[in-house]
Each structure stands twice: as C-alpha cells, then as structure tokens.
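Input for the complex:
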Amino acid sequence: MTRAFDILGSPVRRRILELLAERSRTSGEIVEAIQREFDISQPGVSQHLSVLRESGFATSRAEGPRRVYELGAGPFGEVEAWLDRFRGAWSQRLDALATEVARGKRERRLQRSKEPVRRRA
Amino acid sequence: MTRAFDILGSPVRRRILELLAERSRTSGEIVEAIQREFDISQPGVSQHLSVLRESGFATSRAEGPRRVYELGAGPFGEVEAWLDRFRGAWSQRLDALATEVARGKRERRLQRSKEPVRRRA
DNA sequence: GCACTATATAAGTTCGCGCTTATATTGAAC
DNA sequence: GTTCAATATAAGCGCGAACTTATATAGTGC
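Predicted:
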C-alpha cells in the first residue's frame, strides 16, 4: 500500500494509467502518446512502465517484438480501502461547506445511485 | 490535483489524516501520536501539518496557544474523481481474476465467477 | 515586565526519484 | 548468420522533498 500513492504521485504514470484505462497499448504507443505531453525520453517512459508493472498497476505480455500493456488492478484496491476511511468524514465537510450551494440534502441519494450495481441479498 | 497524490504519498501525512479522521486534535497530540510510530522531530511533524493545511486536507484554528487540526475535504474530491476513471476497468480485472476478497456470497446465479471467461454484455 | 508552553519557521543537509545517455536484449526479416 | 526495430536495462547526475537543529512567534500566568 505504502507504495501505491508514491506510484500514483507521478503525473507521467497517472497519464499512462489513463491511457491504459481506455485500451491496451504497446510500449511504443505509450511512449508516443506520453512524449506528446511530456518532455521525456523513451527510456524514461520505459522506466515508468517498469514501475507500473512491478506494482501490478499494469501488466504486459510480449507480442512479437512489442510489449502490450494492459491496465492491472494492482494496489487500486488498497487505495480505495484507505480512502474509505475518509469518505464519510469528508462528505460531511463537504456538506458543511455546501451551505453556500444550498443543495437539497436529498440530492445525495442520487449520488448513491451512481454506484455499480450492487445486489442486496 | 497534481499535488494531491504527492501529498498522500507520505506515510506520515497519511497517518495524520487517519488520526484526524477519528477526531480533531491539537498539534501536540498529533506530534505525540506520530512520534510513537515514526522517528521524527516536532518540527518535522509541524512541516507535514503545514503541507496538509496549505492543501486543504486539514484546517486549523487557534485555541489559546494550541492549534486544533481538523480534517478538511481538500483535494479528496479530485482524487476520487481521478479514481473514478478506473473503478469500472479495475473491477473488471478483479472479476477476471476472481480472487481477492471473495466479496461475499451473493446467491444470485447471475454470475459464475469461477471462470476466467470475461463476457461483458 | 519575565518565564514557560505550544507551535511554527529558518537554514542547512542528505538521500532517493526521475531524468539523461549509452548499451543490452529480443524478435523478425533477409 | 547480419541488420533493423522495439523495448528494456545500466550507470550516472541533479534537484527537490523530508528530515535535522536552532530559533522565532504567540499565548498564558505570574
């Protein structure tokens, strides 16, 4: 876990994960995309990919001479678990601030419906 | 946003936020609690508090000579927003792996999660 | 005023991350 | 085999974050 937030701390790595969330890509595609936004060399990107691989945030398989990267679950679960502790407290603060917004409190029920389908037993 | 994950990257700061999620505390209480777990000086903790203050992850008010720290919403929302992009994709991987937390036994036979077959309808 | 407590800021050092260039590895095509 | 393409690894460097110690600030009580 400890590492998870460090790994997500890099804007380049976050961007790579965003790219992989769209679809799987080869190392070359990632390098190309990243270099359009960041001034960084191919080995630079490759090292970030290495970090993502080792952490499980991404997986890779060889496909001929290319490496296809895919989003991995990795420590996302741990990040979520950690954040869970704050969801309650934090939304309370938002509510406190929300006096300005003057939103109806029942609005929050709508948010709840955004959750992935969760079947109650 | 960029800063949010950097700020959460520090274990000391994460621990402070956990403490504040329980209840508000004075700087002294935080220093004491942190020093039980980390080998760090009072100014060290104070600097972390400063970072949390400036980012909005925490707020402080003077109470006599003490400073009372309280959890702030800060960039939590941005972190959540960023993670939102991955919740879908990421839970798919978890399903595909069909491992991890064994999330309870929903009895619906809607989904037999043993097979690696990932048939998204 | 002085002394003491609580906390923050200043100034300086160290260490690891994120980069670089150079090179190794692996695969395909010839 | 040789050569080219795609990618990873090695080695080294610079800079900023996270510490440290020392000191300043602010509040309370005498």
